């Protein structure tokens, strides 16, 4: 499973989680730092990436459009990059099951 980390999460997660989610990318490294949510959505969809965001906008779009792409919503307030990395690591099995579920479009983690 390849992840696309949104602007509101640290780019360091790409390297920090490369053992679990290889070929993941951050929007900054994909040239999407100033891109609209629609452009990020299209980029993820066209490349088979799952969006990881703390932003409720992608949560709402996933309900309207469904997948692809799939969306993982980090439902934590102020938290560190280490906290987000630990959350994704602790939920790896859930994330992989979510990826395999053809009907699932959205996963909330808190």
What would you say this structure looks like, in words?
This protein is of the alpha/beta class and about 110 residues long. The protein has one domain (about 1-110). About 40% of the residues lie in helices and about 15% in strands. The protein has 5 helices and 5 strands. It has a 5-stranded parallel beta sheet with strand order 2-1-3-4-5, with helices on both faces. It is globular, with a radius of gyration of 12 Å. It starts with a strand and ends with a strand. The model has no long low-confidence stretch (mean pLDDT about 95).
Envelope shape:
globular
Largest sheet: 5 strands, parallel
Number of helices: 5
Strand order of the largest sheet: 2-1-3-4-5
How far apart the termini lie comes to: 20 Å
Uncertain spans, ≥5 residues at pLDDT below 50?
none
Number of domains: 1
- State the order of secondary-structure elements, H for helix, E for strand: EHEHEHEHHE
Total strand count, please?
A: 5
Mean pLDDT: 95
């Amino acid at each position: 499973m390849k992840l696309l980390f949104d602007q509101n999460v640290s780019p360091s997660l790409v390297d920090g989680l490369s053992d679990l989610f290889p070929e993941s990318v951050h929007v900054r490294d994909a040239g999407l730092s100033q891109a609209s949510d629609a452009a990020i959505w299209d980029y993820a969809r066209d490349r088979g990436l799952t969006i990881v965001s703390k932003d409720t906008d992608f949560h709402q779009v996933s309900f309207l459009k469904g997948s692809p792409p799939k969306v993982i919503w980090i439902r934590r307030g102020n938290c560190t990059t280490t906290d987000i990395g630990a959350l994704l690591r602790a939920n790896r099995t859930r994330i992989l099951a979510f990826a395999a579920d053809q009907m699932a479009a959205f996963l909330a983690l808190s």
